[in-house]
From TrEMBL:
<dbReference type="GO" id="GO:0005524">
    <property type="term" value="F:ATP binding"/>
</dbReference>
<feature type="binding site">
    <location>
        <begin position="5"/>
        <end position="8"/>
    </location>
    <ligand>
        <name>ATP</name>
    </ligand>
</feature>
<dbReference type="GO" id="GO:0005829">
    <property type="term" value="C:cytosol"/>
</dbReference>
<comment type="pathway">
    <text>Amino-acid biosynthesis; L-lysine biosynthesis via DAP pathway; (S)-tetrahydrodipicolinate from L-aspartate: step 1/4.</text>
</comment>
<dbReference type="InterPro" id="IPR005260">
    <property type="entry name" value="Asp_kin_monofn"/>
</dbReference>
<dbReference type="Pfam" id="PF00696">
    <property type="entry name" value="AA_kinase"/>
</dbReference>
<comment type="similarity">
    <text>Belongs to the aspartokinase family.</text>
</comment>
<dbReference type="GO" id="GO:0009090">
    <property type="term" value="P:homoserine biosynthetic process"/>
</dbReference>
<dbReference type="GO" id="GO:0009089">
    <property type="term" value="P:lysine biosynthetic process via diaminopimelate"/>
</dbReference>
<feature type="binding site">
    <location>
        <begin position="219"/>
        <end position="220"/>
    </location>
    <ligand>
        <name>ATP</name>
    </ligand>
</feature>
<dbReference type="InterPro" id="IPR054352">
    <property type="entry name" value="ACT_Aspartokinase"/>
</dbReference>
<keyword id="KW-0418">Kinase</keyword>
<feature type="binding site">
    <location>
        <position position="42"/>
    </location>
    <ligand>
        <name>substrate</name>
    </ligand>
</feature>
<keyword id="KW-0028">Amino-acid biosynthesis</keyword>
<feature type="domain" description="Aspartokinase ACT">
    <location>
        <begin position="378"/>
        <end position="434"/>
    </location>
</feature>
<feature type="binding site">
    <location>
        <position position="230"/>
    </location>
    <ligand>
        <name>ATP</name>
    </ligand>
</feature>
<keyword id="KW-0067">ATP-binding</keyword>
Amino acid sequence: MLIMKFGGTSVGKPERMKKIAELVLSTPGKKIVVLSALSGTTNALVSIGEHLLAGQKAKAEEVIVDLEKHYEAFIKELYGSEAFLAIGQEIVSRYFIFIRLLAAGQFDNKSYRELLAQGELISTELFYQHVQERKISARLLPALYFMSIDENEEPELEKISERLKPLLSSLNNIEVIITQGYICRNHRNEIDNLKRGGSDYTASLIGSAIRAEEIQIWTDIDGMHNNDPRIVKKTIPISELTFDEASELAYFGAKILHPSTIVPAQKYNVPVRLKNTMDEKAFGTIITSKGTEGSFKAIAAKDGITAINIKSSRMLMAYGFLRRVFEVFENHKTSIDMVTTSEVAVSLTIDNNTHLASIENELKKFGNIEVDKDQAIICIVGNKITEQKGMLNKIFDALAEIPLRMICSGGSPNNVTVLVHKQYKNKALNLLNEGLFGLK
Ligand code: ADP
Ligand code: ASP
Ligand code: MG
């Protein structure tokens, strides 16, 4: 079984949706097709939800009207016959009646999450009807029947696998099974999601749960590039990456993959292939456990980082001190990305400020606390770069002009992370591109 996931841009225009139907058809064997919402839809749903939470019903209705028009135009191009256009119209009007019903009621966080799920629900229904029109043998398998997260918002891989087994064996004769990315149920059995960009994660969770042959992530670029193409002009695709390398890049900001995508795939050793829907002949990137030669592989950056410095000459070297500091973060369900220590202070970073005020308050018992918001982590990934002579020099030579707030190296031989103020992020990415890859 193959998993084929198509992102928002791959289904965002009627001709692209038709194109992916062809791609699926021309790929031999059985496959599970995971679809995102049409590009722009989840952003629109976020904006509708935020207006509603703020009590701005009229503003929400304006966005709903625009979105509805978009779908009405979309189906006119997607379906060839009057009969299927009528089916498409019924689907669109049903979803928009439901969205308006959600908007009219008591709108809380639960309704918000339900609203966010509508994008993937509608895209998969429209695509399913499109393949029906083309007489392809396919079935729609609702993700809400099997995809779930626990009270810590962690996917329940074992349960997902157990639920999928009977569902898939009942579809034994079907070549193409279509399901929604991103959406799931939470521990209260409510509709929830795997966070923005989560369709990649859905694909890797399904692929790992059923030990698929391969997880394919089809998007709008020819694989993982050596640097962020939205910020750096000249970037190049990387044909092979290890799970560790890809995982670091995804976690530290390479938007092509949801940060957790690689985790289940690595656990069950299922290869992940990144492919370009706009250029299917391009090789893309294959991610496996196999190490590859070479030195520097890629650079990624993650914004919205807060650095916290705890200065405590009295206590720092005492045993148990770091454990007590980390416990404060654990109690607030806030994970730490970078850590550095000195004789008198410890610095660490977090990417979630939800509980910052209370964390700061509790840390005060350990000493003086300084908090710097608006930082960015730059992550340099390569093959054993911290073990090879001269590699670190190359990084620091390239970044000579940039003030570095923190430096972490040695946690893994394949990665170095530095923390800079967000104003230096773009410059740092460009300087590293030139210094490490000779690309300008
Ligand atoms: P999809 O809608 O298919 O999920 P995304 O927009 O989430 O697509 O991800 C693809 C985008 O990720 C690319 O268009 C590119 O701009 C961005 N991106 C950021 N960093 C990288 C990288 N290192 N390599 C490739 N693409 C990247
Ligand atoms: N539609 C969701 C989002 O825009 C999930 C995804 O595209 O992966 O975040
Ligand atoms: Mg994405």
